[in-house]
Amino acid sequence: MKKPNLLKLSLSKLTLALGLCLAATSASADLLDDVKERGVLNVGTEFHFAPFAYLDAGQQSGLNLELMERVGSELGVSINWIDLPWPSVLPGLEAGNYDFVAGPAMITQERKLRYNFTLPIADATVAILKRADDDSIQTPEDISGKAAGGGRGTAQLEQLKAFAAELPEPPTITEYVDYSQTYADLAAGRIDAVANSLPNIAYTATQRPMFEVVQPPFGQPAFFGYMARNDEESASLVEAINEVLLSMHEDGSLSELQTKWFGAPMDIPSEDFEPEI
Amino acid sequence: MFDWPTFLFSLPLLGKALLITLQTSLLGNAIGFVIGTLIASMQLAKMPLLRRLGGSYIFIFRGVPLLVQLLVIYYLAPMFGLPNLPPMVAAIMALSLCSGAYIAEILRGGLLAIPSGQREAAHLLGMSRPAILLRVELPQAVQSTLPSLVNELVLLIKSSALVSVVGLADLTRVAQNLASSDYLFFQHYLVLAGIYCLINIPLTMFGRRLERHLERSLA
Amino acid sequence: MTFDLSIITANADAIWNAFLVTIYTWLAGSVLGLIAGLLIAALMLFGGRPLQRLLRVFIELVRGTPFLVILFLVYYGGPSFGLRLGAITAGVVCIAGYSSVYFAEIFRSGFAAVPRGQLEAGECLGLGRLQLMWRVQLPQMLVLILPSIINMLTILCKETAVLSIITVPELTAVLTGIGTRTFTFIETLLVLCIAYLLLIEITSRAGRWLERRVGTYLQR
Amino acid sequence: MPLSLSPSTSPPAASNLEATPKGPDKASPIIHLSAVGKRFGNHQVLADINLSVHHSEVVCLIGPSGSGKSTLLRSMAFLEEYDEGEIHIEGRLLGWEIDDRGRRKHAGRTRLNQARRNLGIVFQQFNLWPHMTALGNVTEALVRVRGIKRNEAEKRAMEVLDKVGLAEKAKEYPARLSGGQQQRVAIARALAMEPKIMLFDEPTSALDPELVGEVLAVMKQLALEGMTMVVVTHEMGFAAQVADTVVFLDQGSIVTRGTPSEVFRDTQHPRLRQFLQNYLDRNAFWHTTTEQEN
């Protein structure tokens, strides 16, 4: 047998991949029509993001489910949830593996260019979670020189990195596949601080008294939204969902949901806005 | 140390997930076998182009970690014209493409061990090349490589622990979810390891018995 | 679809460091695994029945469990009884532990492949068990088992990708991280594939060269 | 000056052992087997073997395959554990120890090695170490066991290799040697340790017929020099020419024994006659010549 020629093989692999890129075809119909026709809205998310989407004793649970249920009933479709590790969620959306992402994801300038976001659904300002018995951290700046963690590929992690760079002695930062793992390592003592959006860590701290939120939040004011692909087919879907969100603003059901899951209603924009980050 | 109520509660959930794990790995293995047969026969073909294609396939799918392959398939599948790929399909696709490379290597060994006289005899009887492969050579190659094939199945069942990256709630993902909701990491992962062992160890022993049987029948 | 490799050059430092982490976890884990494997094989050869049984059970359990699950057990399960390893250390330990049982099986088959008579001849000349193992069995079996060892090394090289799941900042973790952050999934994955293919090709080439070198005495 | 290999001139081995008789004692046997037996499960491999081998005596063990002759030879080096009777080498019990309660237990490794120091063994399959050169094979035990410096050991090894006619092959690996040459290296490896007794276990059975002669020649030479030898063999010609005693085994027992002429010519024993007849039939093409010689 001939020995495989390394260079040739790598090249053939490269051409294969490039050929595939060229062969890519795009669906042309309107996504909202498609969804209504099949009666199912495929939604990607990650069920390690309490209280938006998480697993309570194996059962899917969280604000996302209740909110999207309302969306589903207004559009007359059922919701099919696809649970993925967060680093895979956005690529999956782009690849067309589902119609919509109810992450939720923090709305950033960069992401706004790339995706079609819905109206905000919650506050997303980033703060620090620490162990309750750890007295060495009183303000966000106290994480200087310590070990902190965040979710790989999240905007919260980027905020943490930006904040850390300003500190006299930048903390070591570990990147986790999901936030459940960061909380686990915080409990195990491998890290001293987790940076995540306030609603998430506030909820986690009420569920697990061993954790405590460090006030005030260190991040810029930010909001969570859902997203679709930034193409013509998806525009009508986002519009339709925005209408549902607006009606929920008006009838107070969005505030009700926020009170149920975060303990208090949140002040969030009900129209398009320019994110500060 | 061990929380029995939690364990009993988790069993039905793990049971359902086990079915998904078995479904993916068994189907992946079956399709992988078809791919493996194809690639192995390509490698033994006379045409240099076919041989090189078969070789490249094995080089790529054995050279890239399964985790990366899963990501690639998940991100790139739509370019094959497969949008809205259900997680189960993506997982089975990745597992079968990967195991196909390994099975091809196993079958190639088995096919090479068959005396060429048999092919010549079948050829003289007027059998076509595919017919010879399917009716004469493959059954023998499978028989002589069965222990390795069983071993490959065990490896695939273990590899399937990675399929959650394409969104499939397999055994590992469910245990991970359970652990992150009650923080009983050690317990859940121990149970998880136990379930894998309960499937894999008997399979391994079965493979070993086949091997001994084979050695005896050849001796 | 755009194809923009500048993202790779822009992050060259981070990727290089990740590459070093991959190499480190892979090689350190493998070397420890080889040593542990040799130890297990030797203990199974010379140890008493109960020890043999115990090691057999250990081998079967590790072989029956996916590498990812072993990682989870050690990294996330460890702290519940005070084993609090860093991610990289945990990665090295797991690769070592996981590979040790496979290496042990390879060594065991190697020991068995050296004909019994050669040992009898040595025994009759007064050579001790350890002398025979060191001078007669090991040098011969290294040639016999070299292909299996190289094969196992390539498998372990690929297993390091799984370490990304427990936060080890190796190639897969860093490149997919860059991909998610900058929306360059295709480019980063392609680089990832090529990096592993290169590593594995280099390993198997080195293996083939080594096989030719050490096998000279078998040539007629 | 050729290296002398006769036991009388080799240095007394293990002189610290009280039971070792000093110097050659032609009267008492160097190997003594009394009522030796061995069984594998229900199968009696050896039964009630009594045999003495004296200094400079050459004993050939013959018999059909499965008769237990190889097992008997291997028992003399304790490569097989005999479980009944006793084997004494130079007056010392081989392989076993009798404890305080009079029960038999395995002798320690050092004790076994001391007993084996007197023995050199040559196997059917040569059992050379393929990763060492011929010289390396011969030198290994001299260095590791006897603790002789490497260059001195190599000098001694070269002398022995020269004796078996292979000095010029010293640097070759076994794979590059013929079967006959490999077996001669194996003999040299055993001889280098200066044993008092050489045990040969079918040394020519694995060889192509045309290579048998060179090995037998070396063995004959050894016998002439007065080496004590026990040889399991199918080479009846060698046994007839060289042996002092021929022992015929069948089904694990000694059927008959005597000088070659007693065994080969005058025997009345039916099983031995059958065995020799089969042997002659196999080599029927020179049947007539042998009869004329007889």
UniProtKB/TrEMBL annotation, chain A:
- Hey, what's the signal peptide range on this chain? 1-29
The UniProt keywords, alphabetically, are: Signal
Has keyword Repressor?
Answer: no
Tagged with keyword Signal: yes
Q: Where is the Solute-binding protein family 3/N-terminal domain?
A: 40-265
InterPro entries xref list: Solute-binding_3/MltF_N
- List the SUPFAM superfamilies: Periplasmic binding protein-like II
Family per similarity comment: Belongs to the bacterial solute-binding protein 3 family.
Protein name (record): Transporter substrate-binding domain-containing protein
Which source organism? Answer: Vreelandella sedimenti
From TrEMBL, chain B:
Sorted alphabetically, the Gene Ontology BP terms of this entry are: amino acid transport
GO molecular function: any one? Answer: transmembrane transporter activity
Provide the transmembrane region boundaries: 20-45, 57-76, 88-107, 149-169, 189-207
Q: Which residues form the ABC transmembrane type-1 domain?
A: 14-207
Under the heading InterPro entries, the entry gives: AA_ABC_transptr_permease_3TM (IPR010065), ArtM/GltK/GlnP/TcyL/YhdX-like (IPR043429), MetI-like (IPR000515), MetI-like_sf (IPR035906)
Q: Does the keyword Transmembrane helix apply?
A: yes
Task: Write the protein's name.
Answer: Amino acid ABC transporter permease
The organism is Vreelandella sedimenti
From TrEMBL, chain C:
**Topology versus the membrane, per the UniProt entry?**
Multi-pass membrane protein
UniProt keywords, alphabetically: Amino-acid transport, Cell membrane, Membrane, Transmembrane, Transmembrane helix, Transport
Annotated ranges, domain ABC transmembrane type-1: 15-204
Cellular component GO terms held in the UniProt record: ATP-binding cassette (ABC) transporter complex
Looking up SUPFAM superfamilies in the UniProt record yields: MetI-like
Q: Which InterPro entries match?
A: AA_ABC_transptr_permease_3TM (IPR010065), ArtM/GltK/GlnP/TcyL/YhdX-like (IPR043429), MetI-like (IPR000515), MetI-like_sf (IPR035906)
**GO biological process assignments:** amino acid transport
The task this protein performs is described as: Part of the binding-protein-dependent transport system for glutamine; probably responsible for the translocation of the substrate across the membrane.
The molecule here is called Amino acid ABC transporter permease
Organism, per UniProt?
Vreelandella sedimenti
Q: Please name the taxonomic classification of the source.
A: Bacteria, Pseudomonadati, Pseudomonadota, Gammaproteobacteria, Oceanospirillales
